[in-house]
Specification:
homodimer, 716 residues, alpha/beta, nine-stranded mixed β-sheet, 29 helices, 23 strands, 15% strand, glycosyltransferase (chains A, B), membrane (chains A, B), transmembrane helix (chains A, B), glucuronosyltransferase activity (chains A, B), manganese (chains A, B)
């Protein structure tokens, strides 16, 4: 039946098209905006759209009128039933964002999450970043593995000379101004781009915004939403002298930038001249690029295409945005353009915060969604990973372990502001990993270890926000800029302990690392003592690499006073208040440290590896990584010490070093290990595979580890 | 400029309308569906829609053709740029859902979250529930306080006689069939309703679905998506004999039900007759209501309005849905219509699971969003709450406490399947509260307490899913149906300890409750001993109410063997392995229990209240509630014991009862209390307000508590 209808439909469509052209001429003949529409819309929709979309305003008076004369809301509402046609399925959309520093890097991720949540098209992000943001975001996007998302970085450092001559008092610093030079630095092949501030949140499909390019007239080069405050009217306070603008001016938090037209119109020269001219009488820009954009638009109103207000609902301190959103049926983009950000006072702030919090706490891994029917979406490594996962046998008893080992966790390094330690040849970073239930250890750890730390935290996206709050409200933690926190996002049922250790280890920036665990508090003097020992032992210039052993103790009391010296520690040990770590349950773990010898030792002494030895050690930063196959509980450190021994590290016990384990309720993973024979069987299988790999890599030299394993099994 | 354009636009619109009518006749003159379109669309869109929307099929052959002949996808894609006009802003949309039991109640909440996330209209939910679901959902929606959401319950019990005569083998049981009788039981004033299965997830605004009512012809009464499997073709296996259907038939997971037309057409008689006729040759329905709907449609194809496939993407075991979603630009509703639910095997299952998990873990409180510009949205109590919150002074030092006290937490009672204990006059429920970091206590607690428990868990939505997984994978926990878990959703920075206790207490179903804490393990014999004591002491018939004190001990060792008797306990106490609970830090908390006397006691003995006394007690279920003003750490139990004493409860210590506190790392709230003088000051303020209230309620009798407080302060 259907094929029979088609020629008829085609004929009718042609007729309809002709009729619409006639009607269109009648309707819009003298409206330049509609003449110039160049997009290939669906038959029968152009006219309706032209009736319903906000009228494009071609002079300053009309632009200024949008706010007071005809609240956008009503227009937006009428338009809500009828959207402009979206870009074709699978069309690549381009977005540019300037991002610098630790805090903006966190912000931009929430923005990107909101965009990815609603998007249905492939996206190309053009990120202009400083070194800090690049380091963070490169790692993040590499590990995020979002299909149909391309990332390209541009070095903000190189752009600074282009804009640093403009004095600017805005809190975004130089970086805000960089939006002005995007037409010069983005690839020439790129014709159009959406430019976003890091402090916006999407609540709609970005393709709807992209579709508005189709409404530009020939002359229009930049799409902007009117500024939703009286700032540019210059009446906010006495002697307030803003930059020139058309009426209320425009806000540059969301920009549609028609790049090739900008390049053709000589944009660079245009804005440079304008900025120089204004700076003859004004001392600086107050709102960075936005002041310059507005000055240009004031002079050349024909360049701007006003966008509906819902595409940039501005929650600044003096916002008038209510006029927009109370009327609108649908908000598209929220802009937190107050320095107070989410803490801005506004009677509807709760509403907007909820939209933002949605993405702040959203599990980013859920955005690893393919776009059905679009080709070549997979990010590097994703295909191999998919294949490896597909090869796993769900019925196999250790399936959960295999799956967890293959999981690529999203990693957000240096989640909080961090100052790398100054380069010092004997410096040591404390390396550890934790999850939410150990946060309360951090303050004590900071009191015990005054040196740099690199900590991996295994958290959900929501946990990460709680963690941020925790640090911000702790005077002890917020004072420390030498502690780097790296978030590894939760995924899967087993704790990826060694993957976490490797993340923290890889981010340590000193020549040496102290590989510790979060439940241990080091001796107060340990940081200084370790540096002195490294220097004294000339670790950097010895023929063999060395691992310095820090003897480990434990208290079973959850209230106790920490010993200030080795002498005090020995007293507590003799009194039974302290014990050798896990002396009762797992003596072989630390026996080779030779605690009896340590009591009397005055100098470092060498010890030999033995089965199941798992001391806490100080090693050069380039030490072997932990074996990521060990997930959950058990044997994760043992394997690392074997690796050190196989690579012929000398094990030297330090006579004055110690570290004490505090009690805690058993973790869920340990409870599981204890109660499940299947779990223990899988751990056994992992051990055996580890030894096979060891033999492969170290040959006959690895035989002793296998023998030791077999002996310990026959004992068990 | 705008007004000048209007008359011209109107004239053109009229002309356009005329032209479209001509074209429309030419195009669709002989297509009855287009003749009947009765909605008031925007000018210029009807024709395009008619071109682009799925063709309405008027006979069986054509209905079957939709799937193979013309994949919906291409149609959906073309249509994506052009939606039918949405219902007006603030129009109330109606949704009906049948829901029974604990598991469906969890499911329906995820569905509702997905609907609320995208909705922009007020909603009225009509919930047909059994007693279990009603109990759960009434509490949930009352505490959820979502603006612009009306809930009405209908008793499924009353509907059973209407459909119980139909034999049914589908896993939904009788409840699935209840969709058939909705036209009879929903209010007569209700003309149209969307009917949803509990296992669907929205990924779009439900108003877009509602808008499709506008496409119904005069005769059409039910909108359905074609069934996306070969089930009704009857060739899935040998001797597979499905109910009759048009081609592949239709799926009833998502239904647009035009109620008043159904009533006019005599729906009830129609489906009853049809079902009876088919049951002459078929033994039962396999797919519940869906079989009956299809049988009716087979006979009366003019009644059905086929909906685009994206409105019900079916992930059943034999799904052919790929044909739909690979082509479509935008999926609207996912339907988990396999008994395997999220565990269904499908090469794109990961994609769909991610959509579903989005809402499973979504923080429901973020959906407390008002709809700007719509009147009368606030649920009961919300306005008073808003006012109370608005009156708080953000600068006040205890602002966080005040805010936390006022917070209404969403509460999901009996989150997991639960069998209430049989009524027994001396039965005792253990009442406690916990958060995620104490989950590992649950198994041990179950081993120590064999009676009913009512536990409040303070969790995020995401935690709740982890908790579910934890219970499902624990043989100990999943075997216990007498433990009721009540989720109180996290909101705010302070732990609402007494609100949690009150939730657990309110849900206890036995005449007595043992008010414990999650870190305590009761003596193995305690449950039996308490019941015997209650009986012996004739607690139910004494002139004065009694609180039975269970002496509390603690171990500071996190590995220790639990005493099997009072004698063993006393040995451990003498050996220093056990202590009186908090004997060293807070002796006044338990001193009045008179442990020295207890050692020798053979019979229950009475003790007197003293300042700061906070024993663990067994009391009648109707005991006073905990004072919810105490949030975070400190004094929360002390206030409750004062309340018991003020109400003249006798305090009787049981000679054989005991309970032991296990060590754990300090909670974040305690760390905060210890480190912050501001926190302690606020707690002091709360204490004073509590005493003022006490004086108000108990008059001079409350004087002794105030005196005690002042004395203890002057000592401190």
């Amino acid at each position: 039946m259907l094929p029979r209808g088609r020629p008829r439909a085609l004929g009718a469509a042609t007729l309809l098209l002709l009729l619409l052209l006639v009607v269109g001429f009648f309707l819009f003949g003298r409206d330049p905006e509609c003449e110039h529409w160049s997009w290939a819309g669906e038959v029968g929709t152009q006219c309706a759209l032209c009736l319903l979309m906000p009228r494009v305003l071609s002079d300053g008076l009309r632009a200024a009128a949008t706010f007071d004369g005809d609240p956008y809301g009503s227009r937006n509402r009428s338009a809500s039933g009828l959207h402009p046609p979206l870009p074709p399925k699978c069309e690549l959309l381009h977005v540019a964002i300037v991002c610098a520093g630790h805090n903006s890097s966190r912000e931009v991720i929430t923005l990107v999450k909101s965009v990815l949540f609603y998007r249905k098209n492939p996206l190309h992000l053009h990120l202009v970043t400083d070194a800090v943001a690049r380091n963070i975001l490169e790692t993040l996007f590499r590990t995020w593995m979002v299909p149909a998302l391309v990332i390209r970085f541009y070095d903000a450092e190189e752009l600074k000379p282009l804009i640093s001559w403009i004095p600017n008092t805005h809190y975004s610093g130089l970086y805000g101004l960089m939006k002005l030079v995007l037409p010069s630095i983005l690839p020439l092949s790129l014709a159009r781009v959406i430019v976003l501030d890091t402090d916006v949140t999407f609540s709609s499909d970005i393709a709807e915004l992209w579709a508005l390019f189709a409404h530009f007239s020939d002359k229009q080069v930049v799409g902007l939403v009117e500024n939703q405050s009286d700032w540019y009217l210059g009446n906010l306070w006495k002697n307030h002298r803003p930059w020139p603008a058309l009426g209320r001016g425009f806000n540059t938090g969301v920009i549609l930038l028609w790049l090739d037209r900008l390049r053709q119109t000589g944009w660079e020269q245009m804005w440079t001249l304008m900025a120089k001219r204004e700076l003859l009488t004004l001392t600086a820009t107050s709102l960075a690029d936005q002041d310059v954009f507005n000055a240009v638009i004031k002079e050349h109103p024909e360049l701007v295409h006003p966008l509906p207000c819902v595409w940039n609902v501005q929650l600044s301190d003096h916002t008038l945005a209510e006029r927009c959103y109370l009327e609108a049926a649908d908000l598209k983009v929220i802009h937190w353009n107050s320095p107070k950000k989410l803490r801005v006072k506004n009677k509807h702030a709760e509403f907007f915060r909820n939209l933002h919090l949605t993405f702040l706490g959203y599990d980013g891994k859920l955005l690893r969604r393919e776009l059905f029917g679009c080709p070549n979406q997979l990010p590097p490594g994703a295909e191999q990973l998919q294949q490896a996962l597909a090869q796993l046998d769900e019925e196999e008893p250790c399936f959960e372990f295999r799956q967890q080992q293959l999981t690529v966790h999203r990693v957000h390094i240096t989640f909080l502001p961090h100052q790398p330690p100054p380069p010092r040849p004997h410096d040591v970073t404390l390396v550890a990993q934790l999850s939410m239930d150990r946060l309360q250890m951090l303050e004590a750890l900071c009191r015990h270890w005054s040196g740099p730390m690199s900590l991996a935290l295994y958290l959900t996206d929501a946990d990460a926000q709680q963690f941020l709050h925790f640090v911000e409200t702790s005077p002890v933690l917020s004072a420390r800029k030498d502690v780097a926190y790296h978030i590894v996002y939760r995924d899967g049922p087993l704790y990826p302990v060694n993957q976490l250790r490797n993340v923290a280890l890889a981010q340590a920036l000193t020549p040496y690392v102290f590989l510790s665990d979060i439940d241990f508090l080091p001796a107060y003097s340990l940081y200084d003592y370790l540096r002195a020992s490294i220097e004294q032992l000339e670790l950097g210039s010895r023929p063999r690499k060395a691992a310095l052993v820090v003897p480990a103790f434990e208290t079973l009391h959850y209230r106790f006073s920490f010993p200030n010296s080795k002498a005090e520690l020995l007293t507590l040990l003799d009194a039974g208040s302290l014990h050798i770590f896990r002396y009762h349950e797992w003596p072989q773990g630390h026996a080779p440290t030779a605690y009896a010898h340590w009591r009397e030792a005055q100098a470092p002494y060498q010890v030999q590896w033995a089965a199941d030895y798992e001391p806490y050690v100080v090693v050069p930063r380039d030490c072997p990584r932990y074996d990521p196959r060990f997930v959950g509980f058990g044997w994760n450190k043992v394997a690392h010490i074997i690796e050190l021994d196989a690579q012929e590290y000398e094990l030297l016990v330090l006579p004055e070093a110690f570290s004490i384990h505090l009690p805690h309720a058993p973790s869920l993973d340990i409870s599981r290990f204890r109660s499940s024979p299947a779990y223990r069987d899988c751990l056994q299988a992992l051990k055996e595979e580890f030894h096979q790999d060891l033999s492969r890599r170290y040959g006959a030299a690895a035989l002793k580890y296998l023998t030791a394993l077999q002996q310990s099994q026959s004992r068990a």
